Here is the input.
Amino acid sequence: MRNRSGRAARTALLLIAAACFTVALYYAWPNVLDQEDVMRLLLGGLLVFALVSALRSSARARTGLAKGLAMEVSEAAPSTRFADVAANEEALASLRSLADALREPERYARLGARPPRGVLLYGPPGTGKTLMARALAGEAGVPFYAVSGSDFVQVYVGVGAARVRELFTKAKKAGRAVIFIDEIDALGKRRDGMSSEEREQTLNALLTQMDGFDGGAGVIVLAATNRVDTLDEALLRPGRFDRHVCVGLPGREQRAKILALHAKDKPFEPSVDWDALAQDTVGFSGAKLEGLLNEAAIYAAQRSAERIAPEDVHRAFSTMLVGEERAGAGLTARERYVTAVHEAGHALLTLLLMPETRLSHVSIVPSTGGAGGYSMAVPPDSAFLSRAQVLARMAAALGGRAAERIVLGGEEITNGAAGDLQHATRLASSACLCWGMDDDLGYVAADALPDHLADGARARAAVERMLREAMDLAEGTLRARRDALERVAEALLARERMTGEEVRQAAG
Here is the structure.
């Protein structure tokens, strides 16, 4: 700060001296310079001074931006270990070999093995990619440099490239280190001729830096993305990001481990059913599971309770899926009855057509998420779907509309099935256009055809045909069990919320 002030003072003194000299010349030789000449010289000096000051300020700004990289630096090894990561054993197994290579590089060098220069962690958000990178540095006992890809994307050309060089220079000085670039797709998107010059320079700097260091030197680059398909091919080639590790959503056993890990520091009542919760949370990431238990703790604190009860967990689970219940929504008796019929249709078809799916609970209380009611069904952890299972899921999704048609009549159907129709249409589209489950379209993946070969009319007809098949299945099943449908609807009107077992008992 003192240097800047000193330079400004010296510049100002020089400008004053030049002005005094110009005025002295005017009085010494009045025939040589007139007043207009003096004014021009003074204004020219001011203009030059302003221009030089602006250029210096711009240069200082660029230098400051280039050095202003927001970075998480742990010069000592992080305290996080692989034991703190409660899922994705396959991904951890891949990272354990890297920790070995960082701890004992000579063991690998004797056999001519070179640790990968870069490892790309890809998968859905919230699955623990950052935690795994930090755990790798902790296990290897090396410094951890963590940045976000967006930190490199700047307005000024050259700033991002300078930040890339700064990052790698710091890591190399540490000797052995782990560099972690989160959301690398912000920096390394595929070049398509429309990219900005700054983005291309930054990506080229990253590619050059990864080519310019030897993985055996003890620096390993980890990057994380949710969209591996958008990354530039030059970034993914061998020699840069040599290893690609999928970090997927946890299965049931892994969810149980994650829940146990996050619950150990919270006082839960012994009656909380952890196995049922692990089963119900299909599709939850590790971050979402942690958020679920945190919400449950907040609800317990609001009650001034000493322990977190099962109802707190249930409320948190429902809130995360459909929003807070609006008990005072003020529905009319007719609206409550329509909602009960609609949800009874969903629930009954889930029980009858999807025996592998667990009906968790049903509610006709409106929520802040926009639902007038909801039926919560938990599908099994399965990698495959048969056509019969797809059709059953579509029929269950259309069960609310089918129940309205049967009980209320075709002229009294409501707009409450809007979301159900969208869900069923997406399933039918995937089945017909991606999975080859329509006889007319055959085994052609219609969504993969070029536009000039795609037949939109045939594709639409196939989707409509499967939707009609699902609706016929839903209506036929409910008509055969109309008594059960009306009993479940009456029970929902009386209780408002029912568990899957209570629905089963009401159906008879």
About this structure: Confidence is low (pLDDT under 50) at residues 58-66. The chain has 19 helices and nine strands.
